[in-house]
Amino acid sequence: MTNALTKMLAERDWILADGATGTNLFNMGLMSGDAPELWNEQYPEKIKALYKSAVDAGSDLFLTNSFGGNASRLKLHDAQKRAHELSRMAAEIGRDVADSSGRTVIVAGSVGPTGDIMQPVGTLSHSDAVEIFHEQAEGLKAGGADVLWLETISAPEEYLAAAEAFKLADMPWVGTMSFDTAGRTMMGMTSAAMVEMVDKIDNSPLAFGANCGTGASDLLRTILGFSAQGSSTPIIAKGNAGIPKYVDGHIHYDGTPELMGQYACLARDCGAKIIGGCCGTMPEHLRAMRAALEGSSKSGSPSLEAIVAALGPFSSTGDGTEDNAPTARVTRRRRRIA
Known about the structure:
alpha/beta; eight-stranded parallel beta sheet; 13 helices; 41% helix
């Protein structure tokens, strides 16, 4: 285990993360409903190409192909006993790519949600969630991941279970949630509430933030919500490349490289230090994001009007903190692989 991210955070004004996993793998032949994690064994050369495409585009950090690599998610593919093994493979391929890059590149072990609802609303107990996350964390650690990257979490209880599991694995970590329900996570968490939770965690993350969600505009409004709380923990912004649209039988994200370059600079201005893309973000987007960040200096925090003018309208009128904001909806978590 290394602590490369702590060192990079101390030395850099911003860090460029990677883009989409699923979008790129679909372009390589992954079919809807398939488990991407099985490709770590079946097509390791394609996973290596995925990682290398982000590095070649300028990413300082990339996530491993292990988002759904926990036992609960792999059970859908009758591979629940392979959680440690498949996560280890994902990290091993990443370690090889990073070590061959000729510069410092961080391997972030992706850890997604279990897909289950935690007690008392659902059936997943805290202890079982900790065990599930711990098993995957140990696999990513064995494979050489520098840091664990919890992402697309909706429930605070699941975030806290992962934090406990990562402490058991003795691994540094970061964690993002997805704010996709009128400024809240699907389970009702606001940006302000997330900061309060993160600041109280005993095994605190090296960074926290938001990923996926709806459009880039909404995500930046959430980033502003984080910054307004005054936390000293670095912030992560990993927004989608525009809005998904169904075109010729396929899902296409309408965000251009130029738009994502603007997004990257705005994310930095909003207070984010680790900046990347999520669904729909391709290497060409990453190259534009790096060029935009390198070619400009940080400005003051943008207004909501400036964000809309650059990236398009918000999907909801508020950021989830208003008195009339919608309450949480309880449903089975979706699997993000785009």
